UniProtKB/TrEMBL annotation:
Full protein name: AMP-dependent synthetase/ligase domain-containing protein
InterPro entries in the cross-refs: AMP-binding_CS, ANL_N_sf
Source organism phylogeny: unclassified sequences, metagenomes, ecological metagenomes
Annotated source species: marine sediment metagenome
PROSITE patterns named among the record's database cross-references: AMP_BINDING (PS00455)
């Protein structure tokens, strides 16, 4: 059985190792499942295995609003449509709409992140939080 790691209590060296391990997992997934990223990585002569430390982030391509529009709606999808539970889109008033799709795992992970962030401000289980921020697409 694997032990759950709480990044909040790791020293800097082990936190960076964990971040790099998780980053490489994401890079490998998008490189092999999303043609846009494979082409963008190849254009920069970068493969997921070339990322050896967090400083190597500088070598990765950016994803722009135009890229998201060009991939609308499923161009950046890395899992099957049947696993999707939420879709956020822009209105498209300034051009073609942009879409971001989420699985239940994505939603759960975001909830854990928000919970950790709120606990750092002193909020607890009995407090009420209203998210008034847009999704910024």
């Amino acid at each position: 059985m694997s032990r759950k790691i709480d990044p909040e209590y790791l020293d800097r060296e082990n936190l960076e190792k964990l971040q790099l391990k998780r980053l490489k997992k994401v890079l490998d997934r998008v490189y092999h499942k999303v043609p846009f990223y494979r082409e963008a990585f190849d254009a920069r002569k970068v493969k997921p295995d070339n990322i050896k430390n967090l400083k190597d982030l500088e070598r990765l391509p950016f994803t722009t609003r135009e890229d998201l529009r060009a991939g609308y709606p499923y161009g950046f999808l890395t899992s099957s449509l049947s696993r999707l539970v939420r879709l956020h889109t822009s209105t498209g008033t300034t051009g073609k709409p942009k879409a971001v799709l989420f699985t239940q795992k994505d939603i759960d992970q975001a909830a854990r992140l928000i919970t950790r962030s709120m606990s750092m401000t002193g909020a607890g289980p009995e407090d009420v939080f209203q998210n008034m921020m847009s999704y910024g697409l």
